[in-house]
Amino acid sequence: MDTQSKPGLEVDSSVGLSGGTQLKMNHRINNNNNNNNSRIPTSSSGLDLIEESQDAASAADAKKIASLKLFDDLSIFDDVDHKMKENLDNELVKTALDQGIDIREYVADVEAELRRVEDFALTDYIKEATNIASLHYQIKSCDNALEVIEDMLQSFRTNLGNISTEIRWLQTQSANMSVKLKNRQAVRSELSQYINELAVPEFMIRQIVECPVTDQVFVEQLHELNHKIGFAKQQAFQDARSAHDVRDVLLKLRVKATAKIRDYLLQKIQQFKKPMTNYQMAQNSMLKFRFFYEFLLNSEREIAKEVRDSYVDTTSKIFYSYFKHYWTRLAKLQFDDLPLKDDLVGTDESSKKSFFTTQPKMKAPVFSLGERGVILQQAHLEGPVLVEHTASQANQKFPFEVLFRSIQWALVDNASREYLFIIDFFMMSGQAAQDLFTQIWGKTMLVMLKQLEEFVSVSYDSIGLFLCIQIVEKYKETLAKRDVPALQPYFEAVQQILSPRLDFVLDLNVQSLRNADPSGFKITSQPHYITRRYAELVAAMIVIKNQGPDNARVTSLIKQMQLEMDSLVMRMAAEFGDRKFQLIFMINNYDAIWSVMQEHMQQEDSRDTEAVKAVLGQRINDFVEQLLSPYFGPMIEFIKHSEVAVDRGQPETVKLDEKKIGSIIRGFNANWKKAMDDINAEVMRTFNNFKQGTNILQTALTHLVQYYHRLHKILSLPQFKNFAVRNELINLHHLMVEVKKYKTSF
């Protein structure tokens, strides 16, 4: 048999065999296991090891004999059949049975092989007995060495425990010393800072006494002195004896510094009074040393008050003198010919040249805005002020609002700078700053209000007054951006002067329209000069109004003026006996109003122009009816009468007069082309405004086409279906083609 199959059979050799064979195999395996376990040496020589292995084999034989007694127990065969079935499924057993091998012989071979292997193992064990004994002695030596090392480590452990105790003691001592060091450093820091803040070094004394106040070193030492004085006062309140030691030195230095600062500031203030001196530069110089006043305020309030009072007195006189004389000089630059109380919209000037034809020299236009509105632009509002002698040399004259803008901007610019200087230098805010500002500017603002009231009380220039009001609104916005509320009361007072006067002058214009007597006017079909005045004035007022906040009073007066102008146009038109001429007059006048307003007003003002445009459109429609009536009157009358019946739901009430209807249709067919030529000629002859004339002609022809279309619609009613005259109607498209030919005139 092949030996390679034996190990496989050795694994399961105890399964599926007969009882005797199985016992032999188990005995052999037990002997092998016992032999393997006996290889561990326990004696001091190889022979001893062999003897021990033999004793182990004898013990195994004894176990073998004991195991044979198991055969006395027949219960072992209870599940033999079951075991045999399981072993028959073993691949090796199947192979042996299939090849016809005798199992007993196979078992005998396996046992022989096992004995051979056992003998080989014993021989090998005996050969290595010496090495095993040597290993035993080495292990014992290592145990002795490890015992010595263990003793040494135990000694080290004891020594380390002692060192750890010493380290903990040193840590405790170090912590105590650290606390002591921190306490001493804290005391040293506090004490050093206290001494530094209280002690007065010689360098400070020398710089305060000898150095000019404008030197940076003096300013730095003054800051330090101010701090030391404050610190000494604080310590004196706490009864610190050290503060009393330096009190005299600090007091003397404070007196010396105060005297030098007082002299410097008063000298700077006195420089304001010198002719040709730019006081703003002096102010800027003072601002560089704003701490001087703070030092005086902390140290000597009486001297600080003296400096402040001197500044207030000096600047108040300077501003009062400058603005009073500047206003007087500007008054000489105003136009010589000022608007008078008779320069009103409704005033009859038929004996004089129209306002719109010529203008007297050096006179501002009373009713038209012209170029006067540019003054509300930001570049003009904040532009350079007028220089009186330069303008006089150039022989220049200006309207009132230009002079008003110049002096008010000078006030805004100077007063704003002054207010900010007060806040910065004198360290004031709120009501305190307002009160000090009033002390400086109060007299100046009063004299300016008085002079303004004198000018305004005799002014009838509504445009100039309204421009001044809007200038004030613009400057109030500027002051708000600069955060300067001090001038708000002044400008409120200015508006209280300007607004009532503007209302008064506008009301005079309203009354002039109301009281105008058309019977004394020279009236033609062309736009009246009062209409032109009104259009220019209203357009100017609306343009100005839209450049500022809403002014309800002015809006109301403009509305009243519009109503009075409508009434006056109706009264003037009534001077014509013929209705057509009345409509021509109204169309020309409302067209003039609308054209002027369109010229001056922007898109946002369309609300004001739409009302005029609506009235103009209504008058044009009325005129078109008058224009078409002579040529197509019967047809128009028939159409309107028939449409009324249809609208009432009674179309059967329309008169069925075929002869009359035929006359209308044939008359239209015979004359409509010539009628359009005549209408075109009449419109162009009547209206000088070519654009308006073409608009009216187009409206008239459009109405004609619409009327003819309505005629077609009426004749399509059932009661007219048997009228032969319907066949004579001109095709509507043909009529429209002919009408379009007149577009060349548009």
Automatic annotation (TrEMBL):
Belongs to the VPS52 family. Residues 313-623 form the Vps52 C-terminal domain. The keyword Iron does not apply. One of its GO terms (molecular function) is syntaxin binding. Residues 124-296 form the Vps52 coiled-coil domain. Residues 1-45 are annotated as: Disordered. GO terms for cellular component: cytosol; GARP complex. It comes from the Eukaryota. This is Vacuolar protein sorting-associated protein 52 homolog. It is found in: Golgi apparatus, trans-Golgi network.
